[in-house]
Amino acid sequence: MEGKVALVTGAARGQGRSHAVRLAEEGADVIAVDRCGQIGTVPYPMATPDDLAETVRQVEAADRRIVAAQADVRDGAAMKQVVDDGVARLGRLDVVVANAGVTSYARAEDLSDEMWDDVVGTCLSGVFRTARAAIPHLKADGGAMVLISSTEGLTANQHMAHYTAAKHGVVGLTKVLALELAPHRIRVTSVHPTSVDTGMIHNEATYELFRPDLAPGEISRDDVAGPFQGLNALPVPWMDPVDTTEAVAWLVSDAARYVTGIQLPVDAGATTT
Ligand SMILES: NC(=O)c1ccc[n+]([C@@H]2O[C@H](COP(=O)([O-])OP(=O)(O)OC[C@H]3O[C@@H](n4cnc5c(N)ncnc54)[C@H](O)[C@@H]3O)[C@@H](O)[C@H]2O)c1
Predict the structure, then answer these.
(1) CATH value at residue 113
(2) Is residue 193 in some structural domain?
(3) What is the CA radius of gyration of the chain?
(4) Does any domain span residue 122?
(5) Which residues constitute the domain of residue 67?
(6) Known catalytic residue at 207
(7) In angstroms, rounded to a whole number, what is the distance separating the alpha carbons of residues 182 and 57?
(8) Ligand 1 center to residue 115 CA distance, Å?
(9) Strands 66-70 and 95-98, how do they pair?
């Protein structure tokens, strides 16, 4: 990654921060984007400006430069501005990790238009708008894009029709981009993590979904470990952010120079049937 520049969305915390810091430790300068604010239908606290400041601190501790911006990946004009500005300041763009994502929970018949639009808008349209903003810059010198999907992009769970549709959509987007951009030596892949130990799963709304038998507000991490483990083949309830980062770091590296268009599960066997 020495001398390269990486764009990471959803970089304020969780897996996005892990990706940004690892790429910096491997030598990349970073353009970090995050909304840093709540979305109305998301039933758990999202990242804050302080979270993004901590990502900045950790990237700078790795002796790399970082341009951090608060922007919403659903806003195409904002994404273009942030990416253009980051490239102007850091000089180039080589790597994109389209990681920002949200979820909420309801059976399909109970999903409101707002719930659908917020999740599909972020997890699919936001990934597209991130890629679209980056493509002109990547064309200068080739590069690699990793679009973050989920096991829900390969299989399905109830209560998540919007998330599952969006994450499956990322697979189609990955394949089209891989074909369209191959002549420019730009590789495009998707990564499909199982549950990861971040704020997206460790919150009251998710706990209540997994343990409807327990009193709301009194459900602990230990209470949900069993049901989460039931999703995986390996005996582990959830992975650490770094487990996804290992796959991302490989996919964007020269070691994966002929890997494009693929879907890489990092899923403790969750999608193995
Ligand atoms: N945690 C899991 O179990 C899990 C499993 C599979 C896939 N994923 C996916 O991994 C990615 C990262 O999630 P995470 O686990 O780190 O969760 P997280 O909630 O800790 O981090 C998501 C980040 O994205 C940001 N974000 C959300 N919507 C945004 C928007 N519209 N514009 C800009 N920024 C926005 C949030 O502020 C937050 O910092 C997401 O795409 C998620 O769908 C998560």
Answers:
(1) 3.40.50.720
(2) yes
(3) 18
(4) yes
(5) 5-201+238-266
(6) no
(7) 35
(8) 16
(9) unpaired
For residue 219, report the phi and psi dihedrals to the nearest 5 degrees.
-95, 130
- 213: in domain: no
The DSSP result for 64-111, as a single string, is --EEEEE--TT-HHHHHHHHHHHHHHHS---EEEE-------B-GGG-
10-residue averages of pLDDT along the chain (273 residues): 98 99 98 98 98 98 98 98 98 98 98 98 99 97 98 96 98 99 98 98 97 96 98 98 98 98 98 94
Paired tokens of 216: 């709301």
Instruction: Tell if the pTM clears 0.90, that is, is over it.
Output: yes
CA–CA distance, 60 with 67 (Å, rounded to integer): 10
**Which protein residues are within 6 Å of ligand 1, measured from CB?**
9-10, 12-16, 34-35, 46-47, 72-74, 99-102, 122-123, 126, 148, 150, 193, 195-196, 198-201
Q: Kindly state the tokens that stand for 83.
A: 């990416």
- Number of structural domains in the chain: 1
Nearest CA to ligand 1 atom 21: 14
Q: Is residue 221 part of a domain?
A: no
